[in-house]
Specification:
The chain is of the alpha+beta class. It is 43% helix and 20% strand.
Length: 675
């Protein structure tokens, strides 16, 4: 009996020491991120039978157990991933909103309106050198605004993609780290601090990509993306890969097509091509989806857009990407599919090093496409890049392209204060012998069948000759146009194409010339007598020919008599009308008819609305995540005041256990003294 009492006291002392140590460790880690409050778990040691009586033998500590609610944690992980995504989106959308910030004194809309208004002021004083210089000043301001905005957005894209690369690397470190902890926990299943470290690492991974967690009976967690792709299964891992543009094919079992899909260019969209008819290249047709096959691209009438598969000389342009097929000696069959990802993307790596696309994607209504990553900061970064940033850049480019074309088309047919002695085009051809439609001109698609006029003048400014040059972009090459000009104006005007593919007109001595009445768009497409150079927001510039001599700013136009009247101002008025005139902006799949001002306002409004929505989403997601964080903290967090109370209780427990030993010792001494 006395020995049992001594054993009970000894175990009670040991238990109290373990409890005090556990509580002390809790207090020491009160500020440690991810630490889970631990408790000593007691269990009765059982009873023994002495003299017909059942007597207890004390208690044992059977485990040191961390406090953790896995059900709350699963809810927290879901809301935390959403919060990380919305924060990433909001951060960059806020920056975009600042870039596009408009006011009465500054901003793209202000500079564009000022430029177009300057044409109205010039039209009221056609001969004024001061108004011409003022116009050039407004043009330079607009050019600077477009160039700088495009540059800032492009730099932001680089920053986003750098951050994506860094986060993918961090995610892979967490994936490997969780697998390592799984192995360590398998070897020491009672090490609750290893489990706490792993749970914290899971939280860190969740903020990057959004995960679901399964804890089997062996305690080695399995981690999956929210779309179900395994990242960690015990000690086995699957890493993420961030890689450049690529394409894949998925042919029907009956298909024997042996060619390849090729593409050039980039886009924020993924292109899923599905063949709708059977046939060889040049006859087989396909449709395109931008949301993984959920919907199919349509034309302005709501009909599905159908493209014909062609070779490199007959490529089709889809959202800025030229798509063509090469090497095929057999037919495509209906149902053959190709996926083109003309941008860097996120991929899941299989055991055989195969890559499965898990780049976040949304449909036209903003709903996440299934089988893709949907949570975590990576999702937010990809969505802001692909759904907001690159589209805003493309829209800005579309607007700048429309501005360049519309101004140049009008200006190229106009006349300034002095006629030309020579003109150099600003847009080159890749092949001067190819038809204009296939020549590589930046604005080749804008050329139509028509004609333009050339008027030559002698040294006194008297009309010497005039002639019309016919244009058919489907049959005429630039060489053909050069020959036609040289034939029509022998000895007075020489046309040529330089080694870089630019058209040049050179008049003879004491001869000058003007261009007019272009119904084909040829002059604007080759950059002859134009106001702007460049093709988009990043490279738009004022024509150096005009910068050098403002008298070549075209305010008027050539009259029916072949002369330019002193007060002619039709060209300036027509350019000014672009402020309200509806024009075509964008390509076939995203074309809009709007004024330049309306279109730009739409870009700004869309970015502003997206930034506001993202900011609101952060508030909502923060509230949800904080709710579950607080609930988990109430379970696993360390409250120092409570731990101090526990420490006092455990100290009393220790003192009582010591008293048991003292009593046992006294009883034993008494018995020995009686013997």
């Amino acid at each position: 009996m006395i020995s049992n009492l001594f054993n009970i006291g000894s175990k009670a002392i040991t238990n109290a020491q373990v409890s005090i140590n556990t509580t002390s460790n809790n207090i020491a880690n009160a500020e440690t991120t991810g630490y889970q409050r631990a408790d000593a778990v007691y269990d009765s040691s059982g009873n023994i039978n002495v003299g017909g009586s059942s007597i207890g033998t004390g208690a044992d500590i059977i485990a040191i157990q961390a406090n953790w609610d896995s059900f709350i944690e699963s809810q927290y992980l879901a809301t935390s991933a959403d919060l990380a995504a919305s924060k990433a989106e909001s951060t960059y959308l806020s920056q975009m909103d600042s870039i596009f910030n408009q006011s009465d004194e500054e901003g793209l809309a202000t500079t564009q309106d000022a430029f177009l208004t300057a044409w109205s002021e010039l039209s009221m004083s056609p001969g004024s050198a001061a108004e011409r210089e003022a116009l050039l000043g407004e043009a330079e301001s607009l050019v600077y605004s477009l160039n700088s905005t495009s540059s800032e957005l492009k730099n932001m894209q680089y920053t986003v993609e750098d951050e994506i690369a860094e986060q993918v690397a961090s995610a892979n470190e967490y994936i490997d780290g969780i697998a390592l902890l799984n192995r360590q926990i398998a070897a020491a299943p009672d090490n609750y601090e290893l489990v706490a470290s792993r749970d914290q690492m899971i939280r860190e991974l969740d903020e990057i990509i959004g995960v679901a967690v399964i804890v089997p009976s062996d305690g080695q967690v399995k981690i999956y993306t929210e779309s179900g792709m395994p990242l960690v299964e015990g000690a086995e891992t699957h890493n993420l890969v961030y890689t450049s543009a690529r394409s894949t094919e998925s042919l029907m079992p009956s298909s024997t097509y042996d060619g390849d899909v090729s593409y050039s260019g980039s886009s924020s969209e993924e292109l899923l091509l599905e063949f709708t008819t059977t046939g060889p290249d040049g006859s087989a047709e396909f449709k395109v989806s931008f949301d993984g096959g959920k919907t199919w691209a349509e034309d302005e009438n709501g009909d599905t857009l159908i493209y014909t598969a062609g070779d490199v000389d007959n490529s089709v342009n889809i959202e800025g990407v030229d798509v063509y097929f090469s090497g095929g000696t057999t037919d495509h069959v209906e149902g053959d599919r190709y996926t083109i990802v003309p941008k860097s993307g996120l991929y899941w790596q299989g055991n055989d090093s195969s890559l499965i696309n898990c780049t976040p994607m949304t449909d036209d209504s903003g709903v996440d496409v299934s089988n893709r990553s949907t949570g975590g900061s990576l999702s937010g970064l990809f969505k802001v890049r692909d759904d907001e940033l690159i589209p805003a850049m493309e829209n800005l480019d579309d607007m700048a392209t429309a501005l360049i074309w519309e101004v140049n088309e009008i200006h190229s047919q106009g006349a300034g204060l002095t006629a030309h002695l020579s003109l150099q085009g600003t847009y080159s051809v890749d092949d001067q012998t190819a038809t204009l439609s296939n020549s590589g001109l930046t604005f080749a698609d804008e050329i139509e069948s028509g004609s333009f006029s050339i008027n030559t003048y002698d040294a006194d400014g008297t009309l010497a000759s005039n002639g019309s040059i016919s244009i058919d972009p489907s049959t005429d090459s630039l060489d053909d146009i050069v020959n036609a000009i040289n034939t029509a104006f022998p000895g007075s005007l020489t046309a040529s194409v330089d080694s870089d593919g630019y058209l040049k007109l050179q008049s003879a001595t004491d001869v000058s010339f003007e261009l007019s009445n272009d119904t084909s768009g040829f002059l604007a497409a080759t950059g002859m007598n134009t106001f702007f150079e460049g093709s988009g927001a990043s490279n738009i510039a004022v024509n150096s020919y005009i910068q050098a001599d403002s008298s070549h700013v075209n305010c008027g136009e050539v009259g029916t008599d072949g002369l330019v009247s002193a007060g002619s101002n039709d060209t300036a008025k027509n350019i000014n009308e672009l402020m309200t005139k509806a024009v075509n902006i964008g390509d076939a799949t995203s074309s809009q008819v709007a004024s330049l001002s309306e279109y730009l306002s739409g870009i700004v409004a869309e970015v502003g609305a997206a930034a506001l929505t993202a900011e609101t989403q952060v508030v909502c997601d923060s509230s949800a995540a904080q709710l579950y964080y607080d609930q988990q903290a109430s379970v696993s967090g360390v409250n120092v005041d409570e731990e101090m109370i526990n420490l006092t209780r455990q100290q009393q427990q220790y003192e009582a256990a010591c008293q048991i030993i003292t009593v046992s010792q006294n009883m034993f001494d008494t018995i020995l003294g009686m013997m």
